[in-house]
């Protein structure tokens, strides 16, 4: 510390003539009790070049004097304060004292300095889980966001407040955190960007609360700050530690209120309208459909990957650097993700379908980052993509064509399935309902994507399958047993409401049966002595959470102050 400035660690009363060179790493307005539109105080967290922190308070009478001259993230020279004990149950720093601005306090802006831009005091999950009472200090935590609960609303003082419970995991332990109001909106904004993997989250200045002896986290209105996949060294270090623990950090994020519990079988056999490629291309309305086809070619045009910021937003190099529009700053850590075009054929025609990161990873069983490190040149198409040719797949596609693509009839794949049992059931359903007509398969010519004018399939729309609604697990009793799971992707939340065609009793029995019974019935119906082998597409080295979660219990009664069943230690078993 320069001799002309005092160190934060040395601040004690009764002296007031302190001279500090600090960065404001957090600033917020505390509203008056009972009148949220009227400010009560302005709170600051100051850090010096030694990474020592202290809280400072600007009382109501002086807010207008200072608020326009103090901006979060900037460096300042500050002089003259009253030093008071750091008491209360919402202490933002561990410093024994805190500062109170005076009328004669001087604040002068300084150019950017070596003072750290962020300074977290990260609490280990184990320490929080061992707390037996409400903690008086606000905490900073970092973890993988593994689950987003169902969003709820409740009334308080005539206003409706949103609430959602999320789960963070670290060191094979899990903490639950209740988010309210604007923090729910911030989370929803991030999720709407399309990021599907488990992001790294930093919660700054969160409150530890106990409910029935179980510790959990809760945001403090205005004070807490949420970082979702920030471009920070702490995030890079955390991701490395996750890999070292043997945890699969690229698992899909579970979003309970978006129907992510819908299985592949439910989605492709019951809940989504069926179509053919020819019908897709003639369709005039936007919607979601399932088609069965065979990958016949990989379109080797353009790049098979693209770069994203750690927040999930696509970034492009500009003058040798990347800029993220979501994070609003230049980024140094970028992640490659798949964007692969494949030609798929069925009995009615051909089309081009775009597979993005989740779907391509599902097929090739390898992340884009891993494959990128194996190839000599990222512009060359890896040989592994050729292994996809001849593969029969079910595709859940969006009929809204990709307008920026040069080819007619190009559609985005929202979910993919290569499960042999489900494909066999799909084919059997098509055979019993809609016999196929013989028709030549058109060949791509100068107008790539042009299809035949002859429709070879009738609509195979399933309505009210055996007069029974699809059975989808809800948040009240979510059981994740990933050891036996057949899929690693995230189910898209859109569920078509189209009615289903009534199938035969054999198909009904088939759908309701377990895997073994399904295989036996398939063998009998198809007159095939072979049993259908269900491939295990879960990577051998993946480590998953195994836990029965009930996020709704007791929250309706304690929404404002508590987190019901807030945390638990979860053993992550090796797969």
TrEMBL record:
The keyword Acyltransferase does not apply. This is Replication protein A 70 kDa DNA-binding subunit B isoform X2. The keyword Zinc applies. It comes from Arachis duranensis. Pfam families: DUF223, Rep_fac-A_C. InterPro entries: Euk_RPA1_DBD_C, NA-bd_OB-fold, Rep_factor-A_C, RFA1B/D_OB_1st. Residues 293-400 form the Replication factor A C-terminal domain. Belongs to the replication factor A protein 1 family. One of its GO terms (molecular function) is DNA binding. Residues 5-108 form the Replication protein A 70 kDa DNA-binding subunit B/D first OB fold domain. Keywords: DNA-binding, Metal-binding, Zinc, Zinc-finger. CDD domains: RPA1_DBD_A_like (cd04480), RPA1_DBD_B_like (cd04481), RPA1_DBD_C (cd04476).
